[in-house]
Amino acid sequence: MLARFGIFLGWLFNAAALVCAAPAVLMYFNLHGRMSDDRVYMAWFFVIIAGAVWLLGRGLRYVFVGPTYVSHAKEFVERFADPNAPLRLPASHPPGRAPASDGSPSGPWGPR
Hints:
mainly alpha
């Protein structure tokens, strides 16, 4: 239940960060060439506040949910590390060929 709450808080703080960053974006695109120093500082202030809100949301999500790093390589390795995984051993002789006549074991590419 706490994981769902953490995900909800993460989305909520993402939305709040977008709302905080929106005035800075609007200032930049509407007053691009004519921004005074005060407006530049105000736009940077909104960007910094948005970044702080976003980081706070990520921190809360991490506290409630835990790390969300998914590695495809880890899944691949763990699939083969499973002791119950079936083993694929080479055939005693290649398909369509008779076993070696001297009784020695043959590998997948012929007699050894």
